[in-house]
Amino acid sequence: MPEVVDSKTIFSLLEVSRSVQKTIADRYKSLYWIKAEMNKLNHYTHSGHCYPELVEKKDGKIVAEMRSTLWKADFQRINQLFMKVLGEPLREGITILFQAAIAYDPLYGFSLKIIDIDPTFVLGELEKEKRESIRKLQEEGLFDANKRLVFPMIAKRLAIISVETSKGLSDFFKIIRGNPWGYRFEYSLFPALLQGDKSIPSIIRQLAIIAERLSDFDAVAIIRGGGGEVGLSSYNNYLLSKAIAMFPIPVITGIGHSTNETVSEMVAYKNAITPSELADFLIQKFHQFAIPVDESLRRIVEATKARFLLEEQHLHAFSRAISWSSKAVLSNQGNELRSLQLQLQLYTKQLFKDRATEINNVDRLLRLADPKELLKRGFSITRVNGRAISSEASVSAGQVLETTLFEGKLSSSVLK
């Protein structure tokens, strides 16, 4: 009960708190569906309870903030539902639609007691952001900007945005380093966060750093492992998608196993579902260049051999013609023979001079086409039973391969 001192009615803090508690309990008796951004989940593993921090933002500024509680049993049930619907657990940094009771405690103050969270609402919010980003980029004429760039004949020098410990990056390196043709790539790693709201400025910042060194790279690769819809939500962000679309060299992506393509993947020059598929794409580009080079070398060698054979036949025919003419002249006109011999010497000398020039030109072509010159530039030749391999169909498991490098040879066995 309040005290009366000098005609003043005085309430204790506990009395005021309990009055507020009673008023709120009488006023808010129902459960309410509320939309807010989960700024922090605050999950305590020792108790299993969560104390989420909820906020509402307008124009990037927080206009409302409130504490909440999510007890262990409810958290476990909701988390399982998120895993089933979204493919990943409940996490912070997303907008949620939740059912809660409004409560006030004299000791802990005002809070919301979360009973349930709708995972399908999260999907809807992500889809809404995705459509809005696509609309803006299309209106600005940027949606296909990166796709309109000319991709290098060989994308040998790569700027990679990823995390060094990423499983996806490890898969990517395993394939490009172990390609059976010995194609060599050069790459620089630009570490960035790959998930959550903080990944957006992190990736954009690394793109800006790469842009200052454009002459060092042929393409940019953004690589991460797999994830659910929520984990990929940052790649629907308008600012990140715009940075990729406007980038002055091709951007290629391998950011997950999701079947729902993000806006960042849509605007990139090339999107691969997995980092492994992205590595295969780059190797195929190398292969498309190497095969015509090998074919051109074969044609040069064959054409050179044919030319030598033809010239040899011409020389033999000319020699026989000289022999027959000389005998006829010798039997009839000795004086004319001497004159003819002189003319023949001059003609033969000029002929051999011309043929020597042609042979020198052919010799230079052969030296340029020498496989050793190609091996010096990082190419290699792989043979099985002495025959060069141009298709995996010509090789079977268990066979021994011999790979010729510029310096030395390697032997390997086909596993599959």
From TrEMBL:
Catalytic activity from the UniProt record: Exonucleolytic cleavage in either 5'- to 3'- or 3'- to 5'-direction to yield nucleoside 5'-phosphates
Top-level enzyme category: hydrolase
Domain OB-fold nucleic acid binding: 12-117
UniProt keywords, alphabetically: Cytoplasm, Exonuclease, Hydrolase, Nuclease
Family annotation (Pfam families): Exonuc_VII_L (PF02601), tRNA_anti_2 (PF13742)
GO-annotated molecular function: exodeoxyribonuclease VII activity; nucleic acid binding
Subcellular location(s) per record: Cytoplasm
Protein name (Swiss-Prot/TrEMBL): Exodeoxyribonuclease 7 large subunit
